[in-house]
Amino acid sequence: MKQRDAKFNIGDVVRHRSFPFRGVIFDVDPEFANTEEWWNSIPAEVRP
User: Fold this and answer.
1) Beta-carbon-side half-sphere exposure of residue 21 (alpha carbons within 13 Å)
2) Which residue of 6, 7, 37, 48 sits 20 to 30 Å from the alpha carbon of 23, by its own alpha carbon?
């Protein structure tokens, strides 16, 4: 399995590319922790 580094660090302030939303990173999951159904509900062109 290929190891990936997180794009953001805890405490980073982030801004949405398209909408006027801001946020702060407070946790990073080392692997995907949601359901396949949730993942498939996101349009493929906007998935991370």
Assistant:
1) 6
2) 37
What does the alpha-carbon distance between residue 36 and residue 34 come to, in Å, rounded to a whole number?
7
Q: What is the 3-state secondary structure (H, E, C) of the chain?
A: CCCCCCCCCCCCEEECCCCCCEEECCCCCCCCCCCHHHHHHCCHHHCC
Determine the Cα–Cα distance for residues 35 and 42; give it in Å rounded to an integer: 12
Report pTM.
0.54
Q: Which of 23, 25, 28 is nearest to 4 (CA)?
A: 28
